[in-house]
Amino acid sequence: MEVPAPQAGEARRLPAEAAAALGLSADDLLAGQVLQAREGRYLLRLRRAGEACVLKWSHGPEARHEARAYALLADLGVPTLRVLARADAALLLEDLAASPSWRLATPEDVRQPAVGRAVAEWYRALHGAGRRWLAAQPVPPEWLAREADALTPERLRWMAERLGMPGDPLWDLAAGHIASLQAAARSLPETLTYNDFFWANLALSRPRDDAARQALRAVVFDLHLLGIGLR
């Protein structure tokens, strides 16, 4: 099947207010390389004032959610990629291809014990900070959803089909008790959850010397699914 090319023209039509907030000119957008243009979500590699960066924006709520997520993690001291600028539904991030600090992970990386340890350290930072932050909130902000709150009988039965277990009566039992299952989940300790782990969403520190090689660090990106869940 032939894959359509990214629609460069639409991807570069960043609203003027967002472009101004990010410090981008029309020429910057025109010169950018469109990496993704799909379902109203756009990713461009470009330069701002000579610095390599990646622009993410969309017409929908995902980019707005992700911009808030980066801001929240920065406030909590959880490591992220460097955010160069942020608008309501757009982000300008450092470009991993040019970053002196980070590189994109590969499928081979995730088989390495040192990478597992580095990822675990990032998750400990996220879950520790998230647990403390949620405990201090009278009511969590509405933009942070719980995955369990999206459960419906139809979705549970769809899961049963996908798992090849459509005849198991436990699925129908669960479908009839969704509210109590959600209440039980809410009664357990909660924290911030990432919900989108994959090697292509992982950045690893670039070694600069022998000591750095012994202290590999990891951060994840694509934070549009950051939410609240079980610790």
Characteristics of this structure?
9 helices, 5-stranded antiparallel β-sheet, 231 residues, globular, alpha+beta, 10 strands, 3-stranded antiparallel β-sheet
Summarize the helices and strands and which ones pair or pack.
Layout: H1 8-11, H2 16-22, H3 26-31, E1 33-38, E2 41-48, E3 51-58, H4 61-76, E4 83-87, E5 90-94, E6 102-104, H5 113-135, H6 153-162, H7 169-175, H8 178-187, E7 190-193, E8 202-205, H9 210-213, E9 218-220, E10 227-230
Antiparallel strand pairs: 1-2, 2-3, 3-5, 4-5, 6-8, 7-10, 8-9
Q: What does the overall shape look like?
A: globular
Provide the β-strand percentage band. Answer: 15-25%
Q: Level of helix content?
A: 25-40%
Major sheet strand order: 1-2-3-5-4
How many strands, which pairing sense, and closed or not: the largest β-sheet?
Answer: 5 strands, antiparallel
| Strand runs, count | 10
SS-based structural class?
Answer: alpha+beta
Low-pLDDT parts are: none
How far is the first residue's CA from the last residue's CA?
42 Å
Q: So how many helices?
A: 9
What value does the Rg take, in angstroms? 20 Å
Order of helices and strands: HHHEEEHEEEHHHHEEHEE
Mean pLDDT: 89
